[in-house]
Amino acid sequence: MEFSWIKTLIIASATMMSVSCMAQDLIARQAPIDRKLRSVDSLALQRQIRAEQSAYPALSLYPNWDNRYVTMRGAIIPRSYTFDLRGFVMPIPSRKITSPFGPRWGRMHKGLDIKCNIGDTIYAAFSGKIRVVNYEGGGYGKYIVIRHYNGLETVYGHLSKQLVSPNENVRAGEPIGLGGATGHVTGSHLHFETRFLGIAINPALMFNFPMQDVVADTYTFHSTGPNRYAGTEEAESNADVVRYIVVKHGETLARVARQYKISVDKLCELNRLTPSTQLRPGQILRCS
To answer: Nearest to residue 204, comparing CAs of 166, 167, 245, 164?
Structure first.
């Protein structure tokens, strides 16, 4: 009887050890399978994220995708945000700014007017997706809005022809329209805006049209409270914001340097000029 009990105990112990070994072996065999599944899930998730980002650029910033209006509602404005400006292509090779960003005729002019001829090719400034292709008789005329992967939106107004359609993906430097004089204008030019979550930012803070180059590889937007238009006096009072001026008739490098308390050499360095350069009315100068 005692032997039978011992035999049963031995068999039970062996069975438990066998089950334990089988379980450990099963776990060992399952581990690489789990890793593969996690890898597959991760790759699938990455593909899904890339697909969504391609479908809706800057998806994490913007609350919606609308094909009708330039402005938007419901966006949460961050206190600051840095844009990557690398890969920028000038929307037009013209260097002449006919009207700067800022107050004009009792209202805010929310972009730059750049001289062009009717029929001149207009290019996408960055890669992105066409959000709006529309017409506004009392303002932009024929215009295009592109949302870019870096978080900016660009607006191209007064076109004679639009070469793209809503929801179409475009690459930086790709033709999107032809220059014109449609809408509320006094002559042919490109009205060019840069916006972030609906807020107009002075393009001259990021792009130097006279030099056909970016000001720097990045630009940091700072929310300024009640005055939501970056580039105005309130925004420019922030030490981190680059300051530009539009040259007036009779101004010289020496006079501008005195006014903004920098040396002529520094002013020339910022604008790639020489001390003997004669300034032109309407020319844009970086002063800080």
So the answer is: 245
